[in-house]
Amino acid sequence: MNPESPGHPPFSIKRAAKLGAKKHRETERLFLAEGESLLREATVAPRHVFEEPEEIKRVSTLMTSTDPVGVFPFVDVTSEELLSGGSIRSRSDGESEESGTPRTTSGEPRVEPPRFAPFPSTIVLLHGVQDPGNVGTVIRSAYAFGASVALSAKCADLYNPKTVRGTMGAIFHVPVSREVESVNFLHAARESGFASVAATVGGGGPPRNLPGGRLVIVVGSEGSGLSEEVANACDGRVTIPSEAPSLNAAVAASILLYEAHSRVLT
Q1: In what order do the strands lie in the sheet with 236-238?
Q2: DSSP 3-state of 48
Q3: 194 is in which domain, residue-wise?
Q4: Average of pLDDT values for 215-233?
């Protein structure tokens, strides 16, 4: 028996199955998380969990699955909140914290996303990384190495089921801002006291020379990398020594996140 959250109408299988499509996720501001491990990692209550085999078969985005499927509210944060270290909160969806319970545009109580206190001082900005598996892996690495994540407008959707699976539950622990405009974000980051480095195939300093303190690491897709406009908006460039002509975006981001994290540990 899976009771609905108090104050919510019953959640139908048909309605949940539609969340496999981005347009329905955006309308509902809900997404699917599949598997026991993801549900255990959740830091917010699900709207519903489908556990019966026939329900799972109809809701799951996998060809074959026997794991439960949870329906969760969006957990991303605004770029302003990301750069403020979590000290501010968005008021675009409803009332302020002081004036009452925040509401979504549909009138339902707004569920607050997972929060660090404060947010990490390292942010990895993914620019145009379109593979959901890579995006999910970077979020997982950000969790491992104490960072936040910003996704440009042309990145894979944070709530794509493949992205969610790739995070291995880190989506519930890492502050993530999505649909950011990279150059504007970098300008705002500088004004907020962040240094920034662009990961480039050549011409950059070694990873061991990453600056300390508040830092934005910018990584592009394996195919096209970063545009000159985005790279030039950064304070510097970093190049990972490699015999290969380029590295997978998730691998490059993970190496640089580790290097940044090592400065915190030493």
Answers
A1: 176-180, 148-152, 122-127, 215-220, 195-199, 236-238
A2: strand
A3: 79-88+113-265
A4: 92
